[in-house]
Amino acid sequence: QNNEVILLDTLIFAHRGAAGTHPENTMASFEAALKAGADGIELDVQLTSDNVPVIIHDETVNRTTDGEGWIKDLTYEEISKLDAGTWFDSSFNKASIPTLDQVLDWVKPTRLLLNIELKNGVVRYSNLEKIILDLINKYEMKDRVIISSFNHYSLVEMHQLDPEVETAILFMEGIYEPWKYAKSIGAKGLHCFLPVAVPELLIGAAQAEMPVRPFTVNDDNHMENLIKAGCPAIITDWPEKAVHIRNKAAN
Ligand code: G3P
Ligand code: MG
């Protein structure tokens, strides 16, 4: 009998790309994450009025672009013209809102994993799950993608469309034994708010062989503790720092 515990390296997912140093959810941010040595990127997807999946966190373009309005009310043509970088820093004035198609095309030849967060809560985009699934299949990326959402009905819909696509529940609360609940809806991962990633959760999930990927882990001490605890992955705005702390922990 082999009781040896094998701790694998904590994977580093760059939250909205390298959002600490670059405008979130832009190609510049994703490219920086790759360069920083991240294992994957997390991004948020919403649908334009003409059903194009675009990468943006908020339901409106107000905070992160020079435009105004709800994404659901704007065409892709209108969205594509917006400046999605200047709000962060004027040196990023060429950044625009990417489509999921563009990101998949760029990710495909890299080694990056992709965590697509379906923003299907405030606005319930009809057919979002099917549209995203078709794109993933177009790029034959099913084995490198994790679909997450705070809307677990959306995750169930995705699972029903294709049980082979990996889904993960997003949650903010200290749910008791969330791996049992996740399993009951076909999900294979726990994407929890950092404060609820308590030892009981990390240990229980490890025993249930369900990966925990807390967000958003930006503080050095939190990174170090989770890496040393063998947490399967973290989601961070600062991938470069996380890679550095992981390298230090390995030596
Ligand atoms: O997917 C992890 C995290 O991105 C969830 O929250 O609001 O940053 O999309 P939010
Ligand atoms: Mg997100």
Structure described in brief:
This is Glycerophosphodiester phosphodiesterase. By secondary structure, the protein is an alpha/beta fold. The chain contains nine helices and eight strands.
Our Rg estimate from Cα atoms comes to 18 Å
**Average pLDDT level:** 96
* Total number of beta strands: 8
- Count of alpha/pi helices: 9
Give helix and strand order, one letter per element, not per position: EHEEHHEHEHEHEHHEH
- The span between the termini is 29 Å
Shape: globular
Task: Give the CATH superfamily of the domain at 11-42 and 111-250.
Answer: Phosphatidylinositol (PI) phosphodiesterase
- Strand percentage, roughly? 15-25%
Q: Which topology of the domain at 11-42 and 111-250 does CATH recognise?
A: TIM Barrel
Largest sheet: 8 strands, mixed
Bound molecules: SN-glycerol-3-phosphate, magnesium ion
Instruction: Decide which structural class fits the backbone.
Output: alpha/beta
What is the CATH C-level name of the domain at 11-42 and 111-250?
A: Alpha Beta
Per CATH, which architecture of the domain at 11-42 and 111-250?
Alpha-Beta Barrel
Domain GP-PDE: 10-246
Organism: Evansella tamaricis
Pfam family, one: GDPD
InterPro entries: GP_PDE_dom (IPR030395)
